[in-house]
Amino acid sequence: MSAAEVSNDPLAAKGETAPEEGDGNDPHFEPVHKLDTQVEVKTHEEDEEVTFKLRAKLFRFDKDAAEWKERGTGDVRFLAHKTTGKVPDIAEGEVTSELLAIRFANSENANNFKKSFEEAQEKNSSAKGGAIKEQDAPPATGGTTETTETEKKEEEKKEIAESTETKTEEKKE
C-alpha cells in the first residue's frame, strides 16, 4: 500500500463513501399547501402619523391588593389622523375604568409627554367637528360613555406627569 492509498477517513476503511456536500442533512421541506395570494395585513395605523413616541413602563393600580402592578414596557405613542388631525384615545377590549401610570426614564421625557399630550388636546378641540359629543359616542359598559372614559384618562395622565415632576424635584433636593 502506498501513502496515497492510506486514508484516515473511517468511512473509507469500511468501503463506504462520504456523502457529497449538499446531500447531507438538509432541513428544507416543501410546503404541504402553497399560498396563491399574499395576505395584506392591516394595522389600522395606515392613515395616521406618529407625533410622539417614547419608551416607558406602564403600571396599573390594583385596588384589591392596594399596590401598583407592572403591565409592561413599550412605546407610548400619539398617532394623529392625517386628514382630520385628531389624536384618538384607543384601548383594546372591553371598556373598563382603571388607574394607570406611565414611568419614563427621566423627568425630561415626562415633560415632553406632558407637552405633547396638551398639544394633542388642543388639536382635538380645534380639529374639524371638535371633540366627540356624548350623544354621538356609543354607550360603553357600566352606563358610561367613551367621552367620560377619555376625560378620566386625560386627568390621570396629567396627575401622573405632575407627580413625576414633583418626585424628580424632591430627589434633586
Automatic annotation (TrEMBL):
GO terms for cellular component: cytoplasm; nuclear pore. Residues 149-173 have a biased composition (Basic and acidic residues). Pfam families: Ran_BP1 (PF00638). InterPro entries: PH-like_dom_sf, Ran_bind_dom, RanBP1-like. Residues 28-101 form the RanBD1 domain. Residues 1-31, 113-173 are annotated as: Disordered. SMART domains: RanBD. GO terms for molecular function: GTPase activator activity. This is Probable yrb1-ran-specific gtpase-activating protein.
